[in-house]
Amino acid sequence: MTTLSDLVYAQGQAGDADVEWLHRLAGDGQLLADLAFADIVIWVPSPDDSFVAVAHARPSGAATLFYRDIVGDRVRPQWRTQVRDAFVSARIVDSSSPDWFEETPTRVRAVPIVRGPRREGEEPTVVGVLTRHTNLGEARTPSRQQMTFNDCADDLFGMIAWGDFPDISAPTGPRRGAPRASDGLIRLDVDGTTTFASPNALSAFGRLGFDDELEGESLSEVTTQILPVKQSIDESLPLVVTGRAPWRADIEARGVAVSLRAIPLRHHGERIGAIVLCRDVTEIRHQEQELITKDATIREIHHRVKNNLQTVASLLRIQARRTFSDDARDALTQAMRRVSAIAVVHDTLSEGLAQNVDFDEVFDRVLRLVAEVAAGAGTHAKTRSTGEFGTLPSEYATPLALALTELVTNAVEHGLAGREGEVEIEAKRSSISLNVMVRDTGAGLPEGKVGQGLGTQIVRTLIQGELGGTIDWHTVMGSGTEVTIDIPLRWIDHAAR
């Protein structure tokens, strides 16, 4: 998929600051299209003295003119002169007569996109052109709301041509429940008095507890009446409800949450009023709170599971020290090691909200644990890990950590028993698979046969059954054993989703 940045950079005539400005403008493309009841297209100049479309927004309250994707196309001949004039002159250029587009009468307005506020005596920095394509085929007597929306759109287009919109001080991060024009719009004058409120805006404030008409009222005073006395107030709220800053804030009252976004309106740099978009986000905020609660609960569960597993491991360790049977002691020690490996994974999960874990960090801790526990008398094992496992879903981190624990343990206890050697774990991750090799410099497989013990059975079950992968044992030329594990990433990707 070609992004806006790719399309702009491909023309070779824009810098990073220009791209950032266009990104900000494109982010509000839907707002402009809804206010203007028209298609909005952003064009940038190309090396061959033409223009290329890099962004497009369709109106949600009117019929679109472009049923096919126009992004990436060159400007049509009937618009080229108008677009070029707007780009060169840095002025808004309207079509002199209705333009026909695929048998539909349209009106086109070309608006120069000026980066940064204009300054007297300086040439404006024009980075592109925004075109407004209005469908005249559905012309009807406009309502007061439609006329207000159009007036707001005209003000914003004038700000774009002057470099006042988008505002660089406005937040750019994504936020669930961001209000749109159709959700509710309030127009304020320069004093913060409401001059227009759409029906959806009235409904939103009605649910907050304001039953009167908003028009003619100061929005800041209305907000003060609504808010509970003892409730903490967002510091940005006074500037939002007066329309003095392009920020966002939430109002909560009577169990209802309304998100507000202010867009100050300026004419040649002088403030003339503001637009305040509002949306009832009660359900969205409720869902967000539920997610936060669930995340905290999951973290606490992982933490408690880790503590319980460590307690079990400690009991197994105590029991192993008190038993007189060597076989029983070995069995208890192995069980303690397996439980401790699982506890490490849960400990990592309890440290963050994400259910995906950095397996390199997990396995590093597991490897140190195994090397300390597995080495017996006369055995000096060095462990070395190369490559990267990357991030894995938690349901795959546990079986993989346990399987590698068994393999490293076998390499130390059996392959390097009574000698000095090295165990190397190499991880290779591609776009389609995760490949892991465990090598040791020990005695190798007896007669080339794979063991039939509990550890080997556990490893097979984990790799083949839990991870959907394959595992293979073979003797390295000379000495030592190499175990190869291959896990298809389609399983991991499915779990991550």
Distinctive features:
single chain; 497 residues; alpha+beta; Beta-Lactamase; 4 domains; six-stranded antiparallel beta sheet; five-stranded antiparallel beta sheet; 14 helices; 18 strands; elongated
Could you explain the architecture of this structure?
It is a single chain. The protein has 497 residues and is α+β, with helices and mostly antiparallel strands. The chain folds into four domains: 4-162, GAF domain (Beta-Lactamase), CATH 3.30.450.280; 181-280, 2-Layer Sandwich (Beta-Lactamase), CATH 3.30.450.20; 283-347; 354-497, Histidine kinase-like ATPase, C-terminal domain (Heat Shock Protein 90, 2-Layer Sandwich). It contains 14 helices and 18 strands. It has helices at residues 4-11, 16-27, 29-36, 77-89, 144-162, 199-208, 219-226, 237-241, 282-322, 326-350, 359-374, 394-415, 454-466, 489-496, and strands at 39-45, 51-57, 93-94, 99-101, 104-114, 126-135, 185-188, 194-197, 248-253, 256-267, 270-280, 356-358, 380-387, 391-393, 420-429, 433-440, 470-475, 481-488. Strands 1, 2, 3, 4, 5 and 6 form a six-stranded antiparallel beta sheet that branches. Strands 8-7-11-10-9 form a five-stranded antiparallel beta sheet, sandwiched between helices. A five-stranded mixed beta sheet has the order 13-15-16-18-17. The chain starts with a helix and ends with a helix.
Short description:
With 497 residues, this protein is an alpha+beta fold. It has helices at residues 4-11, 16-27, 29-36, 77-89, 144-162, 199-208, 219-226, 237-241, 282-322, 326-350, 359-374, 394-415, 454-466, 489-496, and strands at 39-45, 51-57, 93-94, 99-101, 104-114, 126-135, 185-188, 194-197, 248-253, 256-267, 270-280, 356-358, 380-387, 391-393, 420-429, 433-440, 470-475, 481-488.
